[in-house]
Structure formats: structure tokens, C-alpha cells
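Hi there,

I know you've been waiting on this one. I reran it after we fixed the sequence typo, so this is the corrected version. Both the input and the resulting structure follow.
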Amino acid sequence: MQLVRFHADGQDRIGYFEDDVVRDVTTAFDSFRDALSRPGDAAGADEETFEVSEITYLPPTTERNTVFCAALNYEAHAEESDIAVPEWPLLFMKLPQTLVGHGEPISYHTSVTQEIDYEAELAAVIGDSARHIDPEDALDYVAGYTILNDTSARDLQLGLQVGDDDLIDWFSGKTMRDTTPAGPTVVIDEIDDPQSLDIVSRVNGDVLQDDNTEMMIRSVAELVSFASSRVELSPGDIIATGTPEGVGTFQDIKLEDGDTVEVEIQGIGTLENTVEAVDD
């Protein structure tokens, strides 16, 4: 099943793909969080359908949820970053208003940043409340998987100096409004092993990242377990699992106004967005 949050006919809705159309099952659930907790109930709903051309994709989470992102979770990316792999998972958070849906613009203000970068990531979407869960049980709490492009303002993230020390500004570099695509859907009950998926990013059709999730330092299950040891996870929370080698900042590549960015993950699909520079 491909569960989707979308906007159509003036309303935010919940649906799933069936025979190349989106079936609206909003009335079967109290909320999108509820749909993630019991997605099987969608199959029994008898609602109207929409053509894909009639919908606007929304991020597959809610404003009440938390987006956790793992840093330095692929060995080769840690090496290109010239940063040692931390002793335990390094997580930071994004605000829900950072996210945009599939097909929506990655919008940034040129007065704030001049160096926007892409990061292809597999993301787990939580389906049940989880606290202090063991890694061997962690995937039982995952409703499904989606794609996240951890778009980053590198000049803000990496440009902070205090005295002789270079510091990383996670907040400024990672949390600007409407800059982080997620979606298109949450794929449920179709991925048996999240550690064996090809992951690719393209800018204007050129492949810039090409790897497999088996190369993660810490598995999806380990990341979910670790996050649950710090906070209680809730249905709709997203855990993005880190990006492979090949991000733009280490290739002297930055995204420009009008660029098209695609992130494709085996078994999930392709998340595609266009960069939009806003001049203040």
C-alpha cells in the first residue's frame, strides 16, 4: 500500500494509490497519525477517487510530529566530510514547517543563503508509540518508508567560527521553512528489508549519489531504537537515516534556481522537486 497525504478540491485528505488513481479514505480515520497506526482500515473505505494530476502532495507527516535526521551514517560520507564517526548515533531535528511535498518547490531566500545542497535519504515513518524499544523489535513500530531530501544551507551550516574553532550550526543549516522535500508516499508492507535498497540522487538528470542502504553504519532498526531511548516516538514521526557519499558541497556543486532534484529509492519511488530562489 502507498498511503498519501494530499490536497484536492480545497481540502487536505488521506488516500492511497489504487490502479493509478488516488482513493480518498479521509473519513475512515481521525487523522493521518491514525491512518499510520491502522492503515489496513483504508481498504474498506468507499470514497471518491482523484487522478494524480488533480492532487497536490503533502509531506507524509503532521505538524504535531517530529522529524529526526541521522548525520554521518554512511562511512564514505563521513570520510568525504572529514569527520570521525561518532560513538553513538548523531541525530538532529527538523521542524515540520521545514517540509514540502513531492512536486512542490524547494524555496530559499537568497538574502539568507547562497549555497543550497541535496542529501538523499531513506526515512522510516513511525506507526506506533515507542519508548525504550530494543533494535530487534524496532521495525515492528515502523508503519512504512518514504524518501527525504535533507536539503541543507551549507554556508550557514558550515560557516560558523568562534575564535579558531569551526562549529556546525545545525539549526540555521537545516531548518529553513519549505526547503526539505519528503514523500511522495509512505510505502506500507512492501519492503521486507530496509537495508538492501538502492538509493540515487540526480540534479537535472545527472546522477550525483548512487549507493545502497546496506552501507549504513547503523541500521534503521538501530536508529529507531536509539531515538526511542531519548524520547517517546509517536505515529507520524519521521526518522531519516543519513545520506550516502556524493553531496554537492564536496564536489563544488550547489543548487541553483530552476534546478530539478530527484531522489529515487528502490521499492518506494522518486521524490522530485524544483529549486526556487526568492529574492528579498
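Quick highlight: The longest strand covers residues 269-278.

Best,
R. S.
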